[in-house]
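hi!! sorry for the late reply, been swamped w classes. u asked for the two structures so here they r. pasted raw, havent cleaned anything up. first the sequence of the first protein and right below it the tokens
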Amino acid sequence: ELMHTGYACDAMITVGGCDKSVPGALLPLLRTNAVGLTMFGGAAMFGECPKDMHNAQYREQIGRLDPGKVMESIGAYSNGIIDLEDLDKIERCGLP
């Protein structure tokens, strides 16, 4: 919005990439009443669970890693189901 106003552009193209940046990309168009296009970069890709985890049963249970599975893994660590090393591997592979 600031760049659009500063350069007195005729139109604006914005790109959002997650649920928080899409409104931030769309609102400047509405506030400045500008001609523009907003594009969405798409959802985050799923990660693959690391094959060298200590708890193989937990690895088979969670399957593909999305943000929710990473949060569940934090709970599994808190409950002693997986160790800190496995949690670290899951967090690193969760959203490539």
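now the second protein. again sequence first, tokens right under
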Amino acid sequence: LQPHSLKQHDGAPCSVAEVMPSPLEFGYRNKCEFTIGYDHRGDPCVGFQVGKAKFMTHVVAEASEVPTVPTEMRSAAEAVGRFIRR
């Protein structure tokens, strides 16, 4: 990176466009990384990590109620969840 480039773009290596809100209120996430683990009851679960492992409160919560996750991704997580619970 050249110092003149950083000065020219307010510390960024190139010009950065303004942040634009999504036109969608729900289901707009374009990347989902699910964890396979155990829920608060100790049952196998596919979803998101909640809690903290260092405090022994680390569990996985299903993605089914997360409004920003697209329906297709929630369906995929549910299908994997059904498979691992067989």
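hope this helps!! also noticed smth abt the second:
The two ends are 53 Å apart (CA to CA).
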